[in-house]
Fold this protein.
Amino acid sequence: MSSDVAAPLEDPELLARCLAGDRASREELARACLVRVRRTVFMAVSRPSDADDVVQDAISRIFAALPSFRADAKLSTWIDRISINAVRDHFRRGPILTALLFSSPSEREPAPERYAPDVDWERRRLSEALRRQLLRIRPPKRIALMLSVAYGYSVNEIAMMTDCSVETAKKRLQHGRRELMNRVRKDPYLFGLLKERGTCRT
Amino acid sequence: MSNLSCRDMERALGDYVADAVPPEAKEAMDAHLAACAPCREAATLWSGIGATMREIAPVPLPPLVERSFAVRALGAPTPAVSRPLRRIPWPAAVAAAACAAAALALTALVPDDEPEARTAAAAPRAAAQPRSFEELAEILPDGRTLVHLDPATDVWLDPGTYAAFDRIEADDVRISLHEGRLVADIGQHAFPYRFVVATPSGEVEAKGTIFAVEVVLPAPGVARVLRGVVEIRSGQSRLFDPFLVFEGQQGIIGETGPGPIPRDDLRRDLALLLGQDTMEMTLWLDAAGSGCGDVGTPNRTDRAGQATRGAIASGSAAMARGALRADDQFPDAASAGSTATAARAISGGRNASALVELALAQRQAGDYGKAAATYRRLIAEYDGTLESLTALVSLGQLELYNLGRATAASAHFEAYVERAPSGALAEDARLGLVRAYDRSNRVSDVERAATEYLDLHPTGYAAPEVCRARAEARRLTGNCEGARADYQRIQTDWPSSREAATVDALQGACVP
């Protein structure tokens, strides 16, 4: 999934056309950015209206800063870093409010049942259930975890993207993993399905 | 057992699963895992977590919203450090582009400071992505915007309407109407389906309904129900219980109960639905909001228009729409310009809708037997209405999935397919047929129904399942070549489906 989404982001010609002011290319890049940023924010921010704000904020920052982008890192990494900064700013501004406002009754409701079994639907339910557990972890650990597991960034990259030391990033990741595992183990539905989905090579 | 402790393993498991440990450490971890069941379980679990986490993604935005947002982002000023305005989240701004002045949606593709570029730039972009706007939003000549949310749901927005499409998912739509007027026509959807219009004074929730919501600030909003039922919930006060508003009635959002729709309002909404600027209409409404009417649509010459031109009654004026739809499902009656079908639809409409609601409630409460009885009553008493047609599929699903009566279920699905071969629920009915025959071990019927499904819905949501059912049926009847072709098709067309994962094991099991 991420490869399709990231494809335009890794196209140097598209980037060059954007920087040259080609409007169609800028629109294409904006749409690719939107998909990537929405995914990052969706994993990190629970409340949909907050997530919309953060996405708006991140996209605006990306396009404002695009002329200053130097290709010493991948564009997708640069975009992720800006998205994470927008997320972190969001948490800095109102963590308590966010925590209080999270989980309106409708957000807590389990996903509705359907009569026709549907593989995609089942997977969506599973990933949504995991996301809910992820969202219960405190933001610094949550962000480290999602950068590592969902996007495959190394500890060094995570440290750079979240402006902390490598040791701190490592600790956050470790604690985040442990907490997520514990949370998953306490949820029999999630535990069973994830175990079924996982493989152990030995 | 290696020197590693389980605690060491726990720390490194994430990296191990992600293949991010050095080879020598990996060897030690492999050795530990081979000997330690709890760690092996943890590794399996963590691998499942990783795979699932990589799939976490929000529901894709509809093309209209995505493109509007992208276009908007390009013209966005350099962001201030402060938080974006919270009162109006960005979808509202996007929706403003779609609703407040629909033309803005098109002209916004090119910024105002490049007027000369507008025509030149719009043309190639339209050629590259001709369906982005056309698919979802259509700007009508009088300035209204018609938004096709999905094949079964349309929303009309008056000029000057300020609304936000907060959530547009396959089974969950939420629109915030800040000011102005929208009319929604919600067709048939898979159960459950939620459609909510939130106004400053409360919420209107509807199912299988045509209704209008109007907000004229500072007065509270008004919801007028043209067909079906909506529930109104006050958003700002807990003094008022939610209440139902039936067709032909209107409810003030934030107040206590329904009343009849004023005649002029009815005409306006009906005109909006039928796409007429002006229309001739005579209505006779009784105090309860029901009665008869005659709607003339002289400009319409299509089949539906012909049916509508007959006597259209109105417990709700929108019975016109109900009749129109009923005739769509019964082409013979429609082509004859029959008013009988319309009249049946109309006379049955109100109570039929109430029965649908009752059956839904019974189904949600788990009273499947009662729900089935309600559907049967609906089918028997209101034959020829859209509701009765829909009830055939609902009843079939109930019989099949909840009551375990496959033979009875297949009869209902067959009835639907026979009456409405291209109806909105035809795919569900054909899928139901395949499953029902499968459960009844009617092998040749499975093959026939599956072939019909795959011919008519080759990209249907259950196509892999149906293809596999056909392969199984062919295998059981000794048609190994056909079965093999189906198995191969599953692997080729739907390689990531659940069916594809088990094809290999089945492929060799056929004996001619």
Q: What stands out?
A: Chain B has 22 helices and 14 strands. Chain B has a mean pLDDT of 67. Residues 339-364 of chain B form the longest helix (26 residues).
